[in-house]
Write a structure and sequence with these properties.
GO terms for molecular function: 4 iron, 4 sulfur cluster binding; amidophosphoribosyltransferase activity; metal ion binding. With about 575 residues, the protein is of the alpha+beta class. The protein is about 25% helix and about 20% strand. Strands 1-6-7-8-9-13-14 form a seven-stranded antiparallel sheet, with helices on one face. A seven-stranded antiparallel sheet has the order 4-3-5-2-11-10-12. Strands 19-18-22-23-24 form a five-stranded parallel sheet, sandwiched between helices.
């Protein structure tokens, strides 16, 4: 192959064990407990006992090794995109942290990353991994790695966390996008190069994956999986066209990759002593930067982040959870930006423009469904946008009713907005079992349907004798809303009017969201009136595309408004840059 010799590290069977998935009430409760209780526990001698609060998963960390995954045969790319076994693609979260000042650091970097991943757990629940580096000394030659299948709290035990020594590190929580839900595809991917180890975590999906795969294979590079994330890792090990003089020019390699593959991805890339954050030129996937501040800074909690001293830096798919790890939101990584994080601080290395000066295309579905409500995108909190979606929906599709409610928790913000605009009272009508996972991103239709049956109960005192407007954020396959309506009618609802705080989903996504085929999307089979009859509602209406854009843009604050834009491909069929010819899914 050209450039730096590169090989994915493959430990022996004795070096690793597969983390077993344990979807139990105790395990699920532990994730929430960890996130809620770590406000002041991220400094030296952190003793958060992940084991004590949960049922233990079977895991084993491999300190000093490059990866804890075993080698498996390559798998077909989801056995053809749109296979029934795939859930809703995209759903991945990336996170990185680096300590500033003198190393070894007084911050437990591995714990910071673990808790950052807990905050991103909603972005993927199939697998997770953490890679750390000591950055200096003999320990810097290898990375410390632990990853496995299942939820964060099942994978990272006290023992495995102790082995993740380091002054910097990256992590990933995964929902399968371009490859099967198997341990061999767990991220971050780690490879050895002639110039040291390299680790990559990826959120998104390459739209030109196959052409890039052929290019990499033609240069003699072996690929052990069908994951486009491994492909990115190996592509980074190729020399840029202009060549290199004194060792690898990683920014040039990253820029070359961005020119070869303009979307869709947000990446965190770790070398032994630095982290690169990369957002594709379209800005299709989110990525933001935070600053770890001293815990004694309480008196300055209202100060802007740039005025506070830094004990470290974090980079994340979302800003949710920053406060719980002692960090403050600083800014988004700009579309096309390559940002470098070192012990000395952060700096922009380069910004790669969109091909042919096209507009940016941030995924509008992040606002609708994927992101946590307390995350910040484009200068505004996701909750506020969802509230505005509800207000706009009330203007477009008002109805005579007694109360407004929501399908928890995805439709709650929009329901409050609808109620305020319509002058109606908001009341809870559904009780949610918090120990059942999100039905939308579970890997199979059967699991989704079983999830609905276990997920909700009706608050009959609030429902009986009422005309109800029920708000949800979206309808994909139509599997969940019918049983919910039946539940509410059984509880005594006189009328149930469904209002959806987003437009109908009509098209598949080729950029990392699992909307597999047009045939599976209920809006392609039934219009709003037909769907209302199908699910047993008195009426059903969607927010318009223009209404959604209006809600998103109302308080948007971006650096270059003239370039700002949103991807609405799943709603309109208008794909950023057009649909690549090689896509035949």
């Amino acid at each position: 192959m050209e450039g730096t010799a590169c090989q994915q590290q493959r430990p022996t069977a004795n070096q690793c064990q597969c983390a077993l998935t344990a979807t139990t009430p105790a395990a699920a409760a532990a994730a929430a407990a960890v996130a809620d209780s770590v406000h002041d526990q991220i400094r030296p001698a952190i003793t958060i006992s992940l084991d004590a609060a949960m049922e233990k998963g079977s895991t084993a960390g491999v300190a000093g090794a490059a990866t804890s995954t075993t080698v498996a045969r390559p798998v077909d790319k989801r056995s053809g995109r749109g296979a029934v076994s795939s859930g809703l693609t995209h759903e991945c979260g990336v996170f990185g942290a680096i300590a500033t000042g003198e190393w070894p650091t007084q911050i437990d970097v591995a714990q910071v990353i673990c808790l950052g991943l807990v905050a991103l757990q909603h972005r993927g629940q199939e697998s997770a991994g953490i890679v750390t580096s000591e950055g200096i000394g003999p320990g810097a030659t290898n990375f410390n790695v632990h990853k496995g299948m299942g939820m964060i709290n099942n994978i990272f035990t006290d023992d495995s966390m102790k082995k993740l020594r380091g002054n910097l590190g990256i992590g990933h929580t995964r929902y399968s996008t371009s490859a099967a839900s198997e341990e061999v595809n767990c991220q971050p991917f780690v490879v050895h190069t002639a110039h040291g180890a390299l680790a990559v975590a990826h959120n998104g999906e390459l739209v030109n994956c196959e052409s890039l795969r052929k290019d990499v294979l033609s240069r003699g590079v072996g690929l052990s999986t069908h994951s486009d994330s491994e492909l990115i890792t190996q592509a980074l090990c190729l020399n840029p066209p202009e060549g290199e003089v004194n060792g690898p020019d990683w920014p040039a390699r990253i820029k070359h990759l961005m020119q070869l593959a303009p979307l869709s991805y947000s990446l965190v890339i770790m070398l032994k002593d630095k982290i690169y954050g990369v957002r594709d030129p379209y800005g299709n996937r989110p990525l933001c930067i935070g600053k770890i501040v001293p815990l004694t800074i309480g008196a300055y909690r209202h100060e802007k982040a740039d005025r506070l001293p830094a004990e470290g830096w974090v980079i994340s798919s979302e800003s949710c959870g920053f406060l719980s790890i002692g960090a403050r939101y600083v800014r988004e990584v700009q579309p096309g930006e390559i940002v470098e994080l070192t012990r000395d601080g952060i700096k922009t290395i380069d910004i790669v423009d969109c091909p042919e000066s096209r507009r940016h295309a941030f995924c509008i579905f992040e606002y609708v469904y994927f992101a946590r409500s307390d995350s910040i995108f484009e200068g505004q909190m996701v909750y506020s946008v969802r509230l505005q979606c509800g207000r706009q929906l009330a203007r477009e599709a008002g109805v005579v009713a007694d109360i407004v409610s929501s399908v928890p928790e995805s439709g709650t913000a929009a329901a409050h907005g609808f109620a305020r605009e319509a002058g109606l009272n908001f009341a809870e009508v559904l009780c949610k079992n918090r120990y059942v996972g999100r039905t939308f991103i579970q890997p199979s239709t059967r699991l989704r349907q079983l999830g609905v049956a276990k997920k909700f109960g009706a608050l009959s005192e609030n429902v009986a004798g009422k005309r109800l407007v029920l708000i949800d954020d979206s309808i994909v396959r139509g599997n969940t809303i019918g049983p919910i309506i039946k539940l509410l009618r059984d509880a005594g609802a006189l009328e149930v009017h469904i209002r959806i705080a987003s437009p109908p989903l009509l098209y598949p996504c080729y950029m990392g969201i699992n909307i597999p085929t047009r045939e599976e999307l209920i809006a392609n089979k039934l219009n709003a009136e037909e769907l209302a009859k199908y699910v047993g509602a008195d009426s059903l209406a969607y927010l318009s595309v223009e209404g959604l854009k209006k809600a998103v843009q109302l308080n948007m604050d971006v650096k270059k408004p003239e370039s700002a834009g949103h991807c609405t491909a799943c709603l309109t069929g208008d794909y950023p840059g057009g649909l690549p010819e090689e896509l035949e899914w």
